[in-house]
Design brief:
Low-confidence stretches: 1-76, 102-131
Pfam families: PA, Peptidase_M28
CATH topology of the largest domain: Aminopeptidase
Mean pLDDT: 84
Main location: membrane
Strand content: 5-15%
Family: Belongs to the peptidase M28 family. M28B subfamily.
Subcellular location: Cell membrane
Membrane topology: Single-pass type II membrane protein
Largest sheet: 11 strands, mixed
Oligomer: single chain
CATH architecture of the largest domain: 3-Layer(aba) Sandwich
Length: about 800
């Protein structure tokens, strides 16, 4: 039997690779009443073969002949003999029928009665005792067993102190979660270990910030606060120069500075947190613009206003990694298992310039001294200074500059991802994954505590449902990831280890990281394939703050469509991003926020359970339960339905939109001898394949397991086949042409296309041809895979 347990056990580490000794522990229970028994190697399996009777005649032939002989001897009373013969024949026929029926039922243990009306177009679910359980009953069961009481207590227990990867606190917490999974008596529980290179603050030299005079003498040292405030994977060393305010540090911000004639070369940038870009993207843009270093601060304009906490907000510095990628940056594209001895390499996403988080108070001190052009419209934050200028000069004296020093150190750390699974009863080799990061630089109540608490509660709830009659069709996988603060390192290393099989095994991934940063608005950062699922569940779940209203009705009451308000694109620093952009797995991350802004203490030393609970007005448990219910209902659909409820037609509109963009530039393209016809043809092929599959599913008997498996195999491959096969996973890890990063993506091609009108001299025809070819053949490959018949696809080639 192809089970998730045998899929993910992996191989033991090589004993010859020193000093990286890895201990892997996998536990399997011997019975429901015994303690877990440690196993090493493959587990024992038993196979039972059911032998069917050849026919009813085989059962009755011998007995019938004996009865006939007996009757022939009783010539004296033929009527009595006929009566007995008839009675015995009837008894034999009834016995043979019952034996055949029992044999048939034993060979179809999970068969169910199909003439009962189905609920919500979902097939019934066999309870194990001859009954039928429908989707409506499963929803009620989920709501019955999902509790909020333990969510707050788990968050408080996890956020008592910081617990970074490799620390004693982190290892203790990992052991506690492993024990929790074992106490739930999950079908399988195990750990997956990696060595990864992480960056931490130096123990001997603190990061520093000074104001220098024209002679390079130190005029003033500016204290940076806690030594734990830092940017992981920053470049190290010092940077000295003028100060330039770059707003959010987006590409368009640097373009605007260039248009204003501001000299940024060698300067130190001061950037605001937010703006839809990660710390890594801010540093990347600054490095490409020629700046020497980056200071990043939280502006009060971007956080919820609370006069009682203004002083605390102003003194907080937000730590975050600055690797433009995910996973171990020294093993890009391949797993950091002990036995994978790849040659030394380094991610191209590692910055070369230093980066350091600072508080709003420090930013105010620097920005209030800037001279130069006035800030563009929209750049004015809410710092207490009179004039907003962009620099690079300082008004406190001619020739004065800023020097920053970053002295972080790299360190190899043993990471442990913790897994628990509930095995599916019909398709155990397909699994739905729920995960949350466990580690945190600070207390991490919102960053790691909430997600872990919801993960444990979902595991307990689904296990209780199984004990009360729920038989999931597909397997459920619950994972506690390590080193999430460093760029989803634990999750990405696992993805890299199983990349070749994920597109046939992983149905979807749900990230629980940072699920509660407020209590007003729900955001779903998601792959479009899962958008229909979120639409269904928000109509069923009550809004945690607005009693009597579902999340859907409350969102619609605000005057805009639910999709524009709730559905958001995946972003680089999301816990779900790598699953889709790197692994080709549909993924989603749910999050409640406050208005348009979020809880301001994530990734700070102030991220405690008390502050989070205070902002939520005591509703932490209720909000956690709402997130659990939303995720749980989507997981139920994926684990229960015969046909996977993923929208394969979602990318047709994306391809159509790009085709219309190409049409706008048709005259410019034709003048250069370029034709978009190949893209149009590939788009048409994908659209036809998606619609044909959708129609075929609607007109098929979904109870036919052979047909169901064929359709599901094609659906599972959709996201994976949008990973470009023409770029290297090592050099360009985010290969998805729609959600990824790099020259092969639709975004890069669209930006290049716009140069035909905005700046034709920068348009590179050879580069554009390559970009267009990569996109076209990736789209064509996705269409071929979705069609199911690559040889007869109707195309215009």
């Amino acid at each position: 039997m192809d089970t998730i347990w045998t899929l993910l056990r992996g191989q033991p580490p090589s004993p010859t690779h020193q000093p990286r000794f890895i201990f892997r522990q996998r536990a399997k229970k011997s019975s429901h009443n015994e303690e877990p028994v440690e196993e090493r190697g493959e587990g024992l399996q038993a196979e039972t073969t059911l032998v069917h009777p050849e026919s009813e005649e085989d059962l009755t032939s011998g007995l019938s002949s004996d009865v006939t002989a007996l009757v022939l001897q009783k010539t004296a009373n033929r009527r009595k003999a006929v009566f007995y013969l008839t009675l015995i024949s009837l008894l034999i026929f009834t016995t043979a029928f019952l034996l055949g029926y029992v044999a048939f039922r034993a060979s179809c243990h999970y068969c169910v009665e199909m003439d009962v009306k189905q609920d919500d177009k979902a097939g019934p679910d066999y309870t194990g005792w001859g009954g039928v359980m429908y989707m409506g009953e499963l929803r009620d069961m989920l709501r019955k067993y999902l509790k909020e009481e333990q969510i707050e207590s788990t968050v408080r227990r996890m956020s008592k102190s910081s617990h970074p990867p490799g620390s004693a606190e982190g290892n203790t917490l990992a052991s506690e979660i492993l024990q929790k999974f074992r106490q739930l008596r999950m079908d399988h529980t195990w750990t997956d270990s990696h060595y990864a290179t992480l960056q931490f603050p130096s123990r001997t030299q603190r990061n520093s910030l000074w104001i220098m005079d024209a002679n390079e003498d130190v005029l003033e040292e500016i204290p940076l606060g806690s030594p734990l405030d830092y940017c992981a994977y920053s470049g190290t060393g010092t940077a000295t120069g003028g100060v330039v305010y770059v707003n959010y540090g987006r590409k368009e911000d640097f373009d605007l500075l260039r248009s204003l004639g501001v000299s940024v070369g060698g300067a130190v940038a001061v950037a605001r947190v937010g703006g839809g870009v990660s710390f890594a993207e801010k540093v990347w843009h600054a490095q490409r613009a020629g700046l020497g270093g980056v200071l990043i601060y939280p502006d009060p304009a971007d956080i919820p206003q609370d006069p009682r906490r203004l002083g605390l907000y102003s003194s907080a510095a937000i730590s975050e990694h600055v690797h433009l990628g995910s996973g171990d940056p020294f093993t890009p594209g391949f797993p950091s298992f002990n036995h994978t001895q790849f040659p030394p390499t380094q991610s191209s996403g590692l910055p070369l310039i230093p980066a350091q988080p600072i508080s709003a108070n420090i930013a105010s001190k620097l920005l209030s001294q800037l001279t130069g052009p006035e800030c563009p419209r929209g750049w004015q934050g809410r710092l207490p200074y009179v004039r907003c200028a962009v620099g690079p000069g300082l008004s406190s004296g001619e020739g004065r500059r800023v020097r920053m020093g970053v002295y972080n150190t790299m360190m190899p750390v043993l990471l442990n991802n913790i897994f628990a699974s509930i095995e599916g009863k019909i398709e155990p080799g397909q699994y739905i994954i729920m995960g949350a990061q466990r580690d945190s630089w600070g207390p991490g109540a919102a960053k790691a505590g909430v997600g872990t608490a919801i993960l444990l509660e979902l595991a307990r709830t689904f296990k209780t449902m199984v004990e009360n009659g729920f038989y999931p069709r597909r397997s459920l996988l619950f994972v506690s990831w390590d080193a999430g603060d460093f760029g989803s390192v634990g999750a990405t290393e696992w993805l890299e280890g199983y990349l070749s099989m994920l597109h046939l095994k992983a149905v979807a991934y749900f990230s629980l990281d940072r699920a509660i940063l407020g209590d007003d608005n729900l955001n779903a950062y998601t792959s479009p394939l899962l958008a229909d699922l979120i639409e269904g569940v928000i109509k069923q779940v009550e809004h945690p703050k607005h009693s009597g209203q579902t999340i859907y009705s409350h969102t619609e009451s605000l005057g805009s469509s639910w999709k524009s308000q709730i559905v958001k694109p995946l972003y680089l620093n999301s816990g779900a991003y790598s699953f889709t952009a790197f692994g080709g797995v549909p993924a989603m991350e749910l999050r409640f926020t406050k208005d348009s802004r979020s809880y301001p203490f994530v990734n700070t030393q102030f991220d405690t359970a008390d502050r989070l609970q205070e902002m939520l007005q005591g509703r932490l448990g209720a909000l956690g339960r709402s997130v659990g219910e939303l995720v749980g209902l989507m997981v139920l659909r994926l684990a229960h339905d015969h046909i996977l409820p993923l929208d394969v037609t979602c990318y047709s509109s994306t391809a159509l939109h790009f085709s219309s963009q190409l049409n706008k530039f048709s005259s410019e393209l034709q003048a250069r001898g370029l034709s978009p016809q190949w893209v149009f043809s590939a788009r048409g092929d994908y659209n036809r394949a998606a619609e044909t599959l959708r129609e075929a599913i609607l007109n098929s008997d979904v109870q036919d397991e052979r047909v169901t498996r064929l359709y599901n195999t094609r659906i599972l491959r959709v996201e994976y086949y949008f990973l470009s096969q023409y770029v290297s996973a090592v050099e360009t890890p985010f290969r998805h042409v729609l959600h990824g990063r790099g020259e092969h993506t639709l975004t890069a091609l669209t930006e290049h296309l716009s140069l035909l009108r905005s700046n034709p001299r920068l348009f590179d025809e050879a580069r554009f041809r390559r970009q267009l070819a990569l996109l076209t053949w990736t789209l064509q490959g996705a269409a071929n895979a979705l069609s199911g018949d690559v040889w007869n696809i109707d195309n215009a080639f």
